[in-house]
Specification:
548 residues, alpha/beta, Rossmann fold, 3 domains, 6-stranded mixed sheet, 5-stranded parallel sheet, 13 strands, 11% strand, globular, binds 6-O-phosphono-beta-D-fructofuranose, monosaccharide binding
Length: 548
């Protein structure tokens, strides 16, 4: 069962939404609250330790009904079934998309090409668990017999961003192992990390699904050379492990067969942290915490599969985002976590969202004539308030926002927590209400500002408000709640790909740059570079002339 191939703009719901949009585009959310006393309650979902309040949106009950009608018309239910059951919904690469199977219970059966993949998943998990325990407890040591103190994850894209985000976000739960992430092919990046390391006590985890990625192999080779130069007795087998779909390529690199942790090609890179790609997460937090992360994701999977659409968190958030993207023509959306632990969340979601849904050809092979993937960005509150919030409040762009906060801080400093959460709530309130002329006048008068000065300043003091936000209020940051949150965004990406009728799980767009970089690298040594465009040719010549 393939994904349905329905052009969303040809559905009855889309036509209704277009007409409906004309009626509501200028309505204020404040008016909507005034007309519906139950709005805050009806437009929020309480699930496990999550409260998701989507009432501060430019959407009426009818908007939501029509959006969900659209979801039904594009056959989202059938698509969800295909997604979870191992159908090859990544048609352009002829692969299933089964990151959900990585966190399924051991008793579940998920078939790919007639084979139940769950036993293989659990075999790798057991290997990860034993390896993690041995490294953390000091049973497994480096070549001089000393326990490991540092772990370096060498990978890029999904082989870096997920593990790096999870380790950083959950650092409160970390053990004694120091973790480092080398991703960029920038030699200064790897050099800065190497200078902090002792080869005797450092474990290197080379993560690459394909084990052909230029950045990762270059960094791994540089690190291996550095390691072998440190001591004649330095032993690669004791210090290098690999995570890959290939058993051959890591061995060609010099990694022992026993030190290879397998992933499968039905795990997309940007959704791979739940697989052995998460080995550094397991090492940094301990295997039990890694399992809890997976358990959280599994709970969100079950919610997504079973909740009715109007109470389904990923579905509701995805469809509201479609509303802004395709009807209000919003170009981007922002994620603002009120927790410094989530500093890297936006960066992580950028790959998931933009590599998946940055597509312009639909599932019938036709160019789309409507907008697809949104630009996603963000940063933590309260820092972001002092950086880019001015544009939200008084700029000309509509940027829907997800505000994510935790009721309880991990370090239980209530003085800070109350201030943090008061800001978290105040910003969505300010974005909703804005400030009217009358309120601005009253404020200026109270400060003793003269009438002439008030008249001059007034236009600048008024905020239009009516800016849409979702509030995700979670009890506490734990491995489990992070697992739920990440899985929520994964499913939001899926739903949007289904609605936009695109293939979300390939990434051919990133290939061209890789190919051209290969040609340019060769041309740094070539006499004739005339086959490039004039600008690139000029820049290559400049580099060759000035490079020392
Ligand atoms: O950027 C393209 C991409 O294929 C990502 O999807 C992937 O996460 C990354 O490169 C790294 O690939 P690999 O794990 O094969 O090294």
């Amino acid at each position: 069962m393939a994904l349905p191939k329905i052009n969303p703009t040809h559905t009855a719901a889309w036509t209704k939404l277009q007409a409906h949009f004309k009626q509501v585009e200028n309505l204020s959310i404040k008016q909507m609250f005034a007309q519906d006393a139950a709005r805050a309650n009806n437009m929020s979902i309480r699930w496990e330790d999550f409260l998701v309040d989507f009432s501060k949106n430019r959407a009426t009950n009818e908007t939501l009904e029509l959006l969900l009608e659209l979801a039904k018309e594009v056959k989202l239910e059938q698509a969800i079934e295909a997604y979870f059951s191992g159908e090859k919904i990544n048609e352009t690469e002829n692969r299933a998309v089964l990151h959900t199977a990585l966190r399924a219970n051991q008793t579940t059966a998920v078939f790919v090409d007639g084979k139940n993949v769950v036993p293989d998943i659990y075999a790798v998990k057991h290997k990860m668990k034993a390896f993690t325990n041995a490294v953390v407890n000091g049973g497994k040591t480096g070549y001089t017999g000393k326990p490991f103190t540092d772990v370096v994850n060498i990978g890029i894209g999904g082989s870096d961003l997920g593990p790096a985000m999870a380790v950083d976000t959950l650092k409160y739960y970390k053990n004694h192992l120091r973790t480092h992430f080398v991703s960029n092919v920038d030699g200064d990046h790897v050099a800065e990390i190497l200078k902090t390391l002792n080869p005797e006590t450092t474990l290197f985890v080379v993560v690459s699904k394909t084990f052909t990625t230029q950045e990762t192999l270059t960094n791994a080779q540089t690190i291996k050379t550095w390691f072998l130069q440190s001591d004649a007795k330095a032993d690669v087998a004791k210090h290098f492990v690999a995570v890959s779909t290939s058993e051959e390529n890591p061995q060609v690199f010099g990694i022992d067969k026993d030190n290879i942790f397998l992933v499968w090609n039905w795990v997309g890179g940007r959704f791979s942290l739940w697989s052995a790609v998460g080995l550094t997460i397991s090492l940094a937090l301990g295997y039990d915490n890694f399992e809890k992360l997976l358990e959280g994701a599994n709970k969100m999977d079950n919610h997504f599969k079973s909740a009715s659409f109007n109470k389904n968190i990923p579905v509701v958030l995805a469809m509201l985002s479609v509303w802004y993207n395709n009807f209000f023509n919003a170009e981007s959306e922002v994620v603002i976590p009120y927790s410094s632990y989530l500093n890297t969340l936006a960066k992580y979601l950028q790959q998931g969202t933009m590599e998946s849904n940055g597509k312009s050809i639909d599932r019938n092979g036709e160019a789309v004539d409507y907008q697809t993937g949104t630009i996603i960005w963000g940063g933590p509150g309260t820092d972001s308030q002092h950086a880019f919030f001015q544009l939200f409040h008084q700029g000309t762009k509509l940027i829907p926002a997800d505000f994510i906060g935790f009721v309880n801080a991990l370090h239980q400093n209530n003085n800070h927590q109350d201030k943090l959460i008061s800001n978290f709530l105040a910003q969505t309130e300010a974005l909703l209400n804005g400030k009217t002329k009358a309120e601005a006048v009253q404020e200026l008068e109270a400060k003793g500002v003269s009438k002439t000065e008030i008249d001059r300043l007034l236009p600048y003091m008024v905020f239009e408000g009516n800016k849409p936000t979702n509030t995700l209020f979670i009890n506490k940051l734990t491995p489990e709640s992070l697992g739920k949150l990440i899985a929520l965004y994964e499913h939001k990406i899926f739903v949007q790909g289904v609605v936009w009728n695109i293939f979300s799980y390939d990434q051919f767009g990133v290939e061209l740059g890789k190919q051209l970089a290969g040609h340019i690298l060769k041309d740094f040594k070539a006499a004739n570079i005339g086959h490039h465009d004039p600008s690139t040719q000029h820049l290559i010549a400049y580099y060759k002339a000035l490079k020392s």
